Amino acid sequence: MKKVIYSMLAVAMMAFTVASCDDVPAPYEIPNNESDTTGGGGDEGNQDVIYFQQDFTENQSDWVIVNKEKPDEIEDIWVQDSRYGMKATAFMDNVNYKSDSWIISPAFSLKDAPEVVLVFEQAGNYFDDIKKDVSVLISETYNGNGQIDESQWTALTLDKWHAGNSWTFMTSHGNINNWANKENLRIAFRYTSTEKKAGTWEIKNMKIIQGTFNGGDDSGDDGLQGKGTLENPLNVQEALTYITTKLGTNTSADLYVKGKISSVQEIETVNYGNASYSISDNGESQNSLGVYRGFYLKNSKFTKDDQIKVGDEVIVFGKLVNYKGNTPQFTQGNYIYSLNGKTEDENSGGTGGGTTGTTFTKTVDDDKYLVTFTNPETTAGNSVTIDLTTLGTTGVVQHQAENPSFTLDGVGFAFNKGEGSTTPKYWYTTSGTLYNEFRMYAKNKLAITLPNENVHAIVLHCSSTYNGTKYTGNDTMTGALSEKTFTIVNEFEKASSGTQVRFSKVTITYAQ
Known about the structure:
This protein is mostly beta strands. It has helices at about 5-20, 130-135, 235-245, 390-395; strands spanning about 30, 50-55, 65-70, 80, 85-90, 90, 95, 100-105, 115-125, 135-140, 155, 165-175, 185-195, 200-210, 210-215, 235, 255-265, 275-280, 290-295, 315-325, 325-330, 335-340, 360, 360-365, 370-375, 380-385, 400, 405-410, 410-415, 425-430, 435-440, 445-450, 455-460, 480, 485-490, 500-510.
């Protein structure tokens, strides 16, 4: 559970030695502590002095969850995850619930600790204002009886708050120096939500170490400053700065970036229909951002090698990453939202040459296992959720039925193999490992026949992980509406392999 971090002091000392003229302080300072050695020689003495820690990716340990307010519809607001640590949310089945839930540490002592700082990693998404909905607190009078008296707790000042709009983790530092040399202390992470908004908060790698808190702007600025949306896309330089200073080894949420094509490496039109190119703010090669294997307008395939050229102005939608730590780029699965101000290819009937009908924007919520296809040019209206799990219990569809086809609640569903090598199936078991889900493999298709074509979004409620895999489909999975039929294709570069999409419910949101 407990890890000793060796590198932070070495990095801090290196930064001080090489760049001592930099006036920007670190969030905290680790003082020299020549007596803090464990023997064995080498750099063993340059460790963080750790007074208390918890790696939430390993377990919850002795931390206790206390719910001041929890809806009956949700079994657990806080859950432990081996990758994301402790996760809190009061969002379930497309419903926001009001809640107030705390996770509280066991008592610990900071006796004889001269200066201390709290360090932890956090990520948050779907918050309007994360600082209003979550908080980090400390108490020296709470007795562990499970009764929350807020007067016993003090909210901590953090140097940085997460922006609350992505799954990218960031490190925050909390000022607890007023509690140095005290005992019977407890830390709490508090999550709240309303019936209008219930975000998801993730915390991991919490520790209290010797050091001095150096403040910060406490602004919740993760480097995006509200940009990266369709209404306010990042420019290329902003994207590069965000990638190199904020992402680390992580992948961003889906973002919009605007720039000019500075070079084209490849446009493949025979098998995969994607293109690799670079964009910059001025169309020149310097300070460029790579776009790796992206699709054309409306997330459709490239069909001609002259559909883009150097100098074209584009808005690209997708995820950003610093590949191998030295190549800032969009990951595979991105596409061009607009090309020279146009969102449709006027020379191909508005389809971009790849898919007939209106192609929807796909986003994936890895935390809630939701795959959403949205038409950004429409406004959400009424929604209906169709529970496909009833098909097995009523015997309408049998276990391992191939290419299932049925109508439920007035909506038709027709699965087919498409160009894949494996046939889509319905899995329904009542013993052993229990399944109740539809499975689509590489290049499988699903045609959903709707009562009308006025659709804003289609959401697939996917199954949770199995053996560490999230079955939310391939990055290149597409969705398109043609008249009253919405077609989903689990597109992949090959006829097999890739990631399945497994789902048990479908939510249809009609446009206003």
